[in-house]
Design brief:
mainly alpha; translocation; TatA/B/E; Sec-independent protein translocase protein TatB
C-alpha cells in the first residue's frame, strides 16, 4: 500500500474527505480545516515548549520523542555499562533456556512431522478407497464402520 497524504493511502484519504464534506458541508469545511490546522499548530508548540522546559530543568537536550519514559531513562539516565549490566544476565538466561529446551522442541517437531505424515497416509488411503467405492477389496462397500465415518468428518475440518 502506498503512503499518500499524512501516511494514508489515496482511498483512505478520499473517504476522510467525503466524510468531512458530509459532516460539515462544502461551505463550512474550509473553516473546520483552518480550526484543525490551528489546533495541530498549538499542540506542536505545547510539546516543543514542554520539551524545552524539561531540557532546561534537567540540563540535557531532550526531543519530543525522548519523552517516552523508557527512551528517556535509556538515553539520559543509564550509561552503556549500566545497560550492559542489566541486559547480560537476561541474555545469558535466554541462551540457557533456549539450549535447555532445544531437545524438547526438536522432539516435538519430529512428532508433529510423524503425525502429519500419518494423517496424509490415512487420508490418501481413504480417498483411494472412496474413489474406488471399496473397502480395500474388489467388491463395493456395503457400509463403512463408524470409525471411518468419524475419521472422514475430521478430514473435513483439517
Amino acid at each position: 500500500m502506498e503512503a499518500g497524504v499524512f501516511g494514508l493511502g489515496a482511498t483512505e484519504f478520499l473517504v476522510i474527505v467525503l466524510i468531512a464534506i458530509f459532516l460539515w458541508g462544502p461551505d463550512k469545511l474550509p473553516q473546520a480545516l483552518a480550526s484543525l490546522r490551528r489546533f495541530i499548530s498549538k499542540a506542536r508548540n505545547m510539546a516543543s515548549n514542554a520539551a524545552a522546559d524539561l531540557s532546561r530543568e534537567i540540563g540535557t537536550d531532550i526531543k519530543p520523542e525522548d519523552l517516552n519514559p523508557k527512551t528517556f531513562v535509556r538515553k539520559h539516565i543509564l550509561t552503556e555499562e549500566d545497560q550492559e549490566m542489566l541486559t547480560n544476565p537476561l541474555k545469558s538466561t535466554m541462551r540457557d533456556l533456549e539450549s535447555g529446551t532445544k531437545p524438547l522442541k526438536d522432539e516435538l517437531d519430529e512428532t508433529t512431522r510423524g503425525v502429519d505424515d500419518a494423517r496424509r497416509n490415512v487420508n490418501g488411503q481413504r480417498s483411494r478407497n472412496i474413489s474406488r467405492g471399496t473397502n480395500g477389496s474388489s467388491a463395493p462397500a456395503a457400509d463403512s464402520s463408524s470409525s471411518e465415518r468419524t475419521a472422514a468428518s475430521y478430514d473435513d475440518v483439517t
